[in-house]
Design brief:
The complex is a heterodimer of chains A (about 725) and B (about 425).
Chain A: H1 2-11, H2 24-34, H3 61-69, H4 86-89, H5 108-118, E1 131-137, E2 140-144, E3 149-151, E4 153-158, E5 163-165, E6 171-174, E7 180-182, E8 187-190, E9 194-202, E10 205-214, H6 230-241, H7 252-264, H8 270-278, H9 284-294, H10 296-309, H11 318-334, H12 339-347, E11 351-352, H13 370-381, H14 388-391, H15 401-408, E12 414-419, E13 424-429, H16 462-471, H17 478-491, H18 511-523, H19 528-537, E14 564-565, H20 568-579, H21 604-608, H22 627-635, H23 637-644, H24 649-655, H25 661-673, H26 679-692, H27 697-710, H28 712-715, E15 716-717
Parallel strand pairs in A: 2-10
Antiparallel strand pairs in A: 1-4, 3-8, 4-5, 6-9, 7-8, 9-10, 11-13, 12-13, 14-15
Helix pairs in contact in A: 2-5, 6-18, 7-9, 9-19, 10-11, 12-16, 13-15, 17-18, 17-19, 22-23, 23-27, 25-27, 26-27
Chain B: H1 6-15, H2 23-32, E1 44-49, E2 76-78, E3 85-87, H3 91-94, E4 100-107, H4 113-122, H5 135-143, E5 152-155, E6 175-176, H6 198-218, H7 223-239, H8 241-247, H9 254-260, H10 264-277, E7 282-285, H11 298-323, E8 330-335, E9 339-340, E10 352-353, E11 357-362, E12 370-372, E13 374-375, E14 382-384, E15 387-388, H12 389-400, E16 407-409, E17 415-417
Parallel strand pairs in B: 1-7, 1-8, 4-12, 4-15, 5-6, 5-7
Antiparallel strand pairs in B: 2-3, 4-11, 8-11, 9-10, 13-14, 16-17
Helix pairs in contact in B: 10-11
Classes of the chains: A alpha+beta (about 725), B alpha/beta (about 425).
């Protein structure tokens, strides 16, 4: 505590140079915020603390003024004996205070608040300028070397046009505190090579400065890396700056397994593998990519992904509605329906869930209300999480509670009703409807995010205007968000991560790349297939997953292919494919692949391996392993039934007299891992046969298959 | 002594009328029993989770004389503690009243199952942005496993995400034991498949380890090690004689199994006792999601099925734990997420009612035979001593020796205390 206070005194004269009078808006609230009083775990929490409630991080100073000077009979301010004011005695711990010491008697903070009370504890006049925007300088810093320092400054612009340096009055937080540390004065110091953003906050406004830390000066002997397209250009330029050398190009075996699983969700067959490996055509990777994107499984994979995103399969939608919606999405992907049209059809959807596929888009929660649709559409199509702003201004972003309710007002007329004797559900527009702001209790006008208000004309569906705004080339989020989602699927991490959390304080790791991808996407008619091809053709996608000495700790800049676990559907389909023993799903014909089944058919395997079940929230799948998965892989019936089944692939190969035992093992490896076994692997696999003779064949092959199917090399894409 | 509250004194004092136990006896017991100093004791928890919400007026808070719009069809019966009465369909539980407390003044504001379950199991009012970890998963994180058995088990399986670890991460999720009331019950995937013995498993594992060698270089995130540790834990569990025995409910005498009741709660409670004996820290037992949600025919369902099931399970569990000397180190909790409306609806059911409801709890040094709080005349609201869930959960954490002030960083970077800010352990449960 002492250190903090000293640091503050040493470096911030800001409180003192404000002029003779201490301002409530410019001084008192920033002091309380910076001292942590208005944090979410203290008086800024939704209930306040011990009867004293401030707005979260000071976003509502008018309310705070009442809380400090009037609430609880004004006992927090003592005009006769200002030093006796609770607002001073509590944070200095002259009285018991759950929050401990926030600042000391005699500190600058103390002096400022004392002076403000002595002057009458007034609110700045109602017309006095308010903070309009906040800027941090510089917005981007590259620090070379560990322990090097730089200084941030914060500039406030007020509603009267004036500006002020408020460097000492804002709060600083590093998103990743292991990369840099930042003190109360805005001085940063590098701790390790890496990247992060520093959030700068005051009075409910937040901005961020991006910090890169490079451990060493530029490498002299940095190798020349071939660049295929603009993706490589932007990724490799940044890696160059960071002294990180990308991994080598993947081998054909590596690439083949990877691109099949990522693009069509299945493994290459033995024949496909042989053909690809044998080809000497220098264009063979490109040709394969183009071919895969055309395959029907490409659309199935993306239909499954979008079903996750749209929460298909919830409650009464049932199998029928889910199936219908899945088919509609798959068809749209297959024909490469421009994504702006795709989104427009969904945003403007109405109708019976069982006849109009897109109506299911609006059937997501049990109590469909305008606020749910606002959250849903902003998160799904724009990658913006408005949810916080439902109850209070967003603490880390510009979104105000008014923004949230203004956006919700676009859906004021939306409703659902039971039709056909109550068996079916229809999404429709009521003749009238309004959304009421929870605080003002007034009806709210529809308002675009960061944009003007809108009115609905007679015989109009205002959602059409909303769709036009969402999908407009000028919309700063729509194209960015979808290309970022595509990127994440293929490269394992979003350029903005989480993919649905775009905000100033969560900047992209490679902004030029994201901008270029988004622009290219719009320029190519919002074609999903175009961007997928572009990504797959890049060298970045085709890098090996094997780390080198410089990129082992990189998890942000795509210097190698990041390994990741297969999706539940990919995994179970691959198990069926390798063993030649299909799964069965209720109400689907035998042999149906999991990737073609929208949420609905019960499956222990799919649910255990991460298929989404809870549809209350928009969620990404959990990628973390768990015990139930491991136990199921070890002794569960999915693998056991498949490796012991009669009539499966193993049976056929064992019965084929032309195949040696070594060839059977080799085929098991090639079919599942797309590589032949190493000598040690082959030898260990055949050991039981060597020692016990042909009677041990079946057992030896089953055990080999079990080990392959339990191996990380199989469970992961890499 | 000074913590002993007045209400408890009255209840306990009256015991002596029956010569059952004097106030002096209680004090002597307290002085002798190390369980009173419970923070130092290695405590386990068994939660009979009545998902859907049990009607307080038809169970632990009987008021048979109230207006007919609210009145239960059930009579009230005395218990082995003078002055405490229960509904007539809990006769066995009534004979164990000296072992547990009843809190008749539980209250919160969440009237939907999901939100209320979230609150009751985590100590936090739910938020759309934060998925709070359930109490048992906090136990898993803070205290860890005692041996090769998982620290936290749910029977048969979690009723929803509110029983899971939320932002703590899935590794703290409870282990699903399945339904021990099924014929030939066994835990899913815990036994080796037919025809596979441990020598084959050893061969499989050496092949697997050879295969995984190369992959370890590729993974720089640590997920490989996590998976390896799950394989190790799984094999340890599958190989463990202790685990095999713990889950083998068939080893229990037929008579005792009948006494617990051949029901989900009954066999679940019996399995829970076996698991706790073998080292599991926290067992949650339910009949499945929302099963107690009696919007219709509440009296018929309760009288014919639900209350007898609960009665056998709870009473037998208490008796069994007591006889085995385990009650001092085991907390038993009986509650749903809320109570049910005093007003009987047109379907002869009762609807959701969080304004006041009842909870019963025993063990770990909690002096039984007491009632805390009261609902008002019609059982609509709290009359005396309202109890908020977070204070109850803080008390449980305190008994377990977990610092309930502790703060975690949630998924959205917002710091979150183990229980809602400003909560304090409920004094009533500390004696």
């Amino acid at each position: 505590m002492r250190v903090l206070v000293l640091a503050l005194c040493a470096s911030t004269a800001a409180f003192a140079v404000d002029g003779p009078r201490v301002s409530f808006l410019r001084d008192v609230i920033p002091i309380l915020t910076k001292s942590g009083c208005a944090g979410s775990n203290c008086h800024g929490s939704i209930r306040g603390k011990n009867g004293f409630k401030l707005s979260l991080f000071g976003y509502d100073p008018d309310l705070d003024y009442v809380a400090i000077t009037q609430a609880s009979d004004g006992r927090r301010i003592d005009h006769d004996e200002p030093e006796q004011s609770l607002i001073l005695r509590k944070p200095t711990f002259q009285m018991a205070h759950g929050g401990g010491v926030r600042f000391k008697v005699g500190s600058l903070e103390y002096a400022a608040i004392l002076e403000w009370i002595e002057d009458g504890a007034t609110f700045d006049s109602p017309n006095s300028p308010r903070l309009e925007s906040l800027r941090v300088e510089p917005q981007k810093i590259t620090l070379v070397g560990i322990g090097s320092k730089a200084q941030l400054s914060a500039i406030a612009s007020y509603t009267d046009g004036s500006r002020q340096d408020i460097t000492g009055k804002v709060q600083y937080n590093a998103n990743d505190e292991s990369v840099v540390e930042v003190d109360r004065t805005g001085e940063i110091k590098s701790l390790r090579a890496g990247e992060t953003a520093i959030m700068v906050r005051t009075l409910g406004k937040a901005v961020a400065a991006r910090i890169e830390v490079v451990a060493e000066p530029p490498m002299q002997d940095y190798p020349e890396i071939p660049r295929y397209d603009f993706i490589d250009e932007f990724v490799f330029s940044k890696l160059r700056r960071l002294n990180v050398i990308p991994s080598d190009l993947s081998t054909d075996n590596e690439f083949l397994r990877r691109v099949y699983l990522d693009t069509v969700g299945v493994l290459p067959t033995l024949e496909e593998t042989e053909e690809f490996l044998a080809s000497a055509d220098p264009q063979k990777r490109s040709q394969l990519i183009d071919h895969l994107v055309e395959r029907p499984e490409f659309a199935e994979l993306w239909a499954t992904r979008f079903c996750d995103l749209f929460r298909v399969g919830f409650i009464d939608q049932g199998v029928k509605g889910s199936r219908l919606f899945y088919d509609w999405i798959r068809e749209a992907i297959r024909e490469d329906k421009p994504y702006d049209e795709f989104a427009t059809e969904l945003i403007t959807a109405t109708g019976n869930l069982w006849f109009n596929p897109t109506a299911n888009f609006y059937y997501i929660t049990e109590n469909s209300e305008p606020e749910n649709f606002a959250t849903n559409i902003s998160q799904v199509f724009l990658g913006i999480r408005l949810e916080c702003a439902r109850c209070h201004d967003h603490p880390w972003e510009r979104w105000k509670q008014d923004d949230f309710w203004g956006f919700a007002a676009f859906f004021a007329r939306m409703a659902e009703k039971d039709t056909y004797q109550g068996d079916e559900t229809e999404v429709f527009l009521k003749d009238q409807g309004e959304v009421v702001h929870p605080k003002t209790k007034e009806p709210v006008k529809p308002k675009y995010l960061d944009g003007p208000t809108e009115t609905e004309g007679p015989d109009e569906d205002i959602r059409e205007k909303l769709a036009a705004w969402v999908t407009s080339p000028e919309n700063p989020w729509f194209a960015h968000n979808i290309v970022n989602r595509l990127w994440k699927h293929y490269l394992g991490r979003g350029i903005v991560e989480p993919v649905d959390d775009f905000r100033i304080t969560n900047p992209p790791t490679n902004e030029v790349l994201l901008d270029a991808l988004a622009k290219d996407f719009v320029d190519h008619g919002y074609s999903l297939q175009h961007t997928v091809r572009l990504i797959l053709h890049s060298r970045v996608y085709q890098l090996s997953s094997e780390p080198n000495g410089t990129n082992r700790t990189d998890h942000l800049n795509y210097s190698r292919y990041y390994v990741r676990r297969l999706m539940a559907e990919q995994l179970v389909d691959a198990l069926s494919q390798v063993t030649g023993v299909p799964e069965e799903y209720r109400a689907f014909v035998p042999g149906t692949r999991a990737m073609t089944i929208p949420a609905g058919a019960p499956s222990y395997f799919l649910e255990t391996f991460g298929r989404l079940k809870d549809r209350d929230k928009i969620a990404e799948r959990a990628s973390q392993p768990n015990m139930a998965q491991t136990m199921h892989l070890i002794s569960g019936d999915t693998i056991q039934d498949k490796i012991t089944a009669e009539g499966g692939t193993l049976d056929r190969w064992m019965a084929d007299a032309s195949l040696s035992d070594a060839e059977v093992v080799s085929r098991l490896f090639r079919a599942s891992l797309v590589r032949p076994p190493a000598e040690a692997e082959l030898s260990l696999a055949l050991a039981p046969i060597r020692s016990e003779g042909p009677a041990a064949r079946r057992r030896a092959f089953e055990d080999t298959l079990w080990a392959i199917l339990n191996s990380k090399e199989f469970l992961f894409n890499h | 002594m000074e913590h002993f509250d007045r209400r408890a004194f009255i209840k306990l004092g009256s015991l002596s009328l029956f010569g059952f136990m004097t106030y002096g006896d209680i004090l002597r017991l307290r002085a002798q029993s190390p369980a009173k100093d419970s923070a130092n004791k290695d405590i386990s928890i068994i939660h009979l989770w009545l998902s859907g919400g049990i009607s307080h007026l038809d169970s632990f808070d009987p008021k048979p004389d109230i207006d007919s719009r609210y009145r239960s069809q059930f009579k009230k019966i005395p218990t082995n503690v003078s002055g405490i009465e229960l509904c007539e369909h809990l006769p066995r539980t009534a004979r164990q009243a000296d072992k547990y407390v009843i809190i008749r003044s539980m209250t919160h504001k969440q009237a939907a199952h999901e939100a209320a379950s979230g609150l009751v199991l985590s100590g936090h009012d739910p938020l759309p942005t934060i998925h709070y970890p359930a109490m048992q998963t906090v136990v898993a994180k803070e205290l860890g496993p005692r041996n090769e058995l998982p620290p936290v088990v749910t029977v048969p399986a979690p009723t929803g995400n509110w029983e899971k670890a939320g932002f703590l991460g899935p590794r703290y999720n409870p282990f699903s034991a399945g339904n021990p009331n099924q014929e030939n019950y066994q835990v899913r995937d815990m036994n080796l498949p037919m025809g596979v013995d441990w020598s084959r498993v050893d061969h499989r594992r050496s092949l697997l380890s050879l295969l995984d060698d190369k992959f370890r270089r590729l993974d720089t995130t640590g997920i490989s090690e996590t998976m390896d540790s799950y394989y190790q834990t799984s094999f340890d569990l599958m190989r463990s004689e202790r685990a095999k025995k713990a889950f083998d409910i068939a080893q229990e005498p037929e008579k005792l199994r009948e006494k617990y009741g051949r029901t989900s709660l009954g066999q679940g409670a019996l399995l829970a006792r076996r698991l706790v004996e073998s080292g599991v820290r926290f067992v949650t037992i339910s009949r499945g999601f929302n099963t107690w949600d009696h919007h219709g025919n509440v009296f018929r369902s309760l009288a014919n099925e639900f209350l007898p099931e609960l009665d056998r399970a709870y009473a037998t569990l208490l008796e069994d734990l007591h006889q085995r000397g385990m009650l001092d180190s085991t907390i038993v909790i009986v509650t749903g997420e809320f109570g049910r409306t005093p007003e009987i609806n047109s379907n002869a059911g009762r609807d959701h009612w969080p304004n006041v409801f009842s909870l019963s709890m025993a063990g770990a040094g909690i002096t039984g035979g007491r009632v805390l709080g009261a609902s008002d005349e019609d059982g609509k609201f709290v009359k005396d001593d309202p109890v908020e869930v977070p204070n109850l959960i803080a008390a449980i954490y305190k008994k377990l020796g977990i610092d309930y002030h502790k703060e975690y960083l949630s998924n959205i970077g917002r710091p979150v205390k183990l229980v809602r800010d400003g909560s304090t352990p409920l004094d009533f449960l500390m004696v």
